[in-house]
Amino acid sequence: MWSKRKETIKKSASRNIRFIQTAISVVKSTHLKLYSYRFSKKIYTQQQLLILILFKDFRNQHYREFIEDIGDMEGIQEILDLSEVPHFTTLQKFLCRIKTLYLRFTFRKTVNLFYAANENIPITAIDSSGFTSGYCSHYFSERTGKIRKHFLKTSISVDTDQQVITGFVASNSRVHDTRHAVKLLRQCHNIRKSDCYV
Fold first, then answer.
1. Residue 77, pLDDT above cutoff 70
2. Burial class (CB in 10 A: 0-12, 13-18, 19+), 160
3. Which of 71, 170, 177, 196 is the most buried (most CB within 10 A)?
4. What sign does the dihedral 156-95-86-84 (CA atoms) show?
């Protein structure tokens, strides 16, 4: 039983390292500057912070839990050349200030990892969904008479064969699916052409 557990930990560690190495390659290709300001403290580079955020999402963890785990991952710290583990708020603040352009570059480079140079996607499917960004339930809103004003509408395009997300559009208001569809079709067609859209 112990040997099986040890093997699982080993596999998980090598999976993490493979992800980090891929993330380093992708983030470097976006040409994100090492520091956002000339007079930055220069404790962490922007590239290190972006890789950590990608790694957090890869592990599907909350900020606090993720940073605690990173503190125990000496191998990852070494690969990323971290002199110290950042506070979880450092990641949150970085994500708020980074230009969306670099996130889009990162997304595009990531999508391209799944395909050959001129390869087309056979079928791309598009779907939309809306979310309220508040915590109160619909029934609580009705009972108290408080209207939930904060709303997030998201649309994504997906390669139906490989289950890869190839495009996304988000807005803070209730908009019809067709308005998102035009932007999304243009975006995913620029990133990776498809033979058919559904």
1. yes
2. middle
3. 177
4. positive
